[in-house]
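Predict structure. Chain length: 399.
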Amino acid sequence: MHTKTMTDPIEKTILSHKKNRPTIIIGGLISVILFTYLTATYGWRQGALLLVGLIAGISLYHAAFGFTAAWREVVLTGRSAGLRAQMVMLGITVLIFTPLIGLGEFGGIDLRGNVAPLNLAVIFGAFFFGIGMQLGGACASGTLFTAGGGNARMLVTLAAFICGSVIGTWHWSQWQDAPGYEAVVLSKNFGIIPAILISLVLFALVWVAAAWNERRHHNSIKSYWKTEIGQSWLRGPWPVIIGALVLAGVNIATLLIAGRPWGVTSAFALWGAKFVGLINIDVTAWEYWQRPSSLESLNQSILANVTSVMNIGIMLGALSAASLAGKFAPSFKLPWRSLLAAVIGGLMLGYGARLAYGCNIGAYFSGISSTSMHGWLWFVAAFLGNILGTRLRPYFGMQ
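Prediction complete.
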């Protein structure tokens, strides 16, 4: 009996891996075919960006690196390993981003940061997004990697996310005159070295405050290097700090290859706009889509769009990671209250991201890494939204 008990988990793991073999093969074939097509049709950069997305998806899944759960832990328990890991991620990225963006060009590619004004649109949009994170169950990158990893509920969140993004582009012009101030970029106002130093001080303050709060609640702080027993680099789980370090590399690679930082949600707006175009809704009449870059994306294949290709890569990477871990097992038996929260949360995520010039990746991660102060404004407003969203979760049967 004792031997049987000991081998049951091993047998279960072997069976899971056997069941996931088809998804491993399918995910691998799609990735290879898509990489080949992108490289041949659009050039090496699109193929490289798919690979960067694949790496992001694998690391997000294996490290379970999400912004939503990390912030909820701070609110509910005071545990802050995820938030502190984010500060490390931001610190590394700022150190590389700031001088590169200051150069303005590298390897023949023009470089720019993610910069936006400080106004009420950012505040309201980020606050909506923060509530949506907790009701929808994930942030922008989290929605992609959990959906790709086989979470059926997150497919609902993703669909609502796309719908909310389209509505956000419809209302976009109405928020452009929101009260506020012009963009404040530390590297432009103070220079490269001072901007880096100011940013590092701010990251350190958040890190120390989070650690102090955790120690106050638990008399200790949880290391972001620790993980579960039985950790495997191929099958996971990875320490959360590894996810943070890989994502810093992902954003730096994106800047060098695409010429601008990592983003996620603009692709959702594009996907939604192309879909509503099929039902004879002319989005080109909306001011958001009259901008040259947006109109160009709308008229091209989504495979020509940098953000879309990276998003597809994230989902394929998460699919591969979940399959290799033997954890790809979608369940479609979902409580109606949880589904309702997914729809409401997804709509708020999409709408909020368009108002706030981005999401947790485009505005928070890439904005702060570009030394644009709108990223910090986004962080504060979104965190407050997360507090409210966390309090609302029990009404939808969510922990």
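Summary: The chain is about 70% helix and 0% strand.
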